[in-house]
Amino acid sequence: MKHELPKLPYALNALEPLISQRTLEFHYGKHHQAYVNNLNNLIEGTSFENADLVDIILKSDGGIFNNAAQVFNHTFYFMALKPRGGGKPRNKLYDALVYTFGTFEKFKEEFSKAGATLFGSGWVWLVADANNKLSIVKTSNAANPLCDNLTPIMTLDVWEHAYYLDTQNARPKYIENFWELIDWELIETRFENL
User: Could you read off the pLDDT of 101-135 as tens digits, one per residue?
Assistant: First the structure.
């Protein structure tokens, strides 16, 4: 199975000024594409050649795992952004966040703090366990919560290439901008389909 770079549901300049076209040209167009290309090259002639992305993540290690996970992680991140996003979720997800964290604002604060304090490169995730209990987890490098039997619902990329062209080393500003771009309808659908 040949893996492909997914088409974004928005134009490269649609997230400006919060995420610039230049950042997306590099982050999506070069970094994400490189993970796709590397994965396709690495799985050729292996037992993963015809496997889907989740199977590869769950059963591989080393370079194959790193590239497969980064294809998944980036796709999951980019697809949950939209121009003029933000606000708050509604319905079951909102209720679950309030139940788990006390208030939506407290969830947002804890998620932002996790992103700001993750050392080095990685990801912050809102995940659900087998009982649909929500939590926030941080993963380093390409690690993915699927490997810990957790279902991802939303993620924040805190690798420097996600924000350095726009906010330089100001990761907290990038995180603040992220909240204005979230596609809560998509994230609610992910939660409701658990």
Answer: 999 999 999 999 999 999 999 999 999 999 999 99
Q: Which amino acid is at 128?
A: A
Q: Tell which CATH architecture fits domain 91-192.
A: 3-Layer(bab) Sandwich (3.55)
161 in a labelled binding site: yes
Distance between CA atoms of residues 32 and 81, nearest Å = 15
Instruction: Give the start-to-end residue ranges of the domains of the chain.
Output: 21-79, 91-192
Supply the pLDDT for residue 67. Answer: 98
Do the annotations mark residue 32 as ligand-binding? no
The answer to whether 156 and 111 have CB atoms below 8 angstroms apart is: yes
- The CATH code for residues 21-79 is 1.10.287.990
74 is known to lie in a ligand binding site: yes
Q: State in Å, rounded, how far the first CA of the chain is from the last one.
A: 26
Contact 37, 26 (CB under 8 A): no
What tokens appear for 83 in the block? 């121009």
* Residue 3 assigned ligand-binding role: no
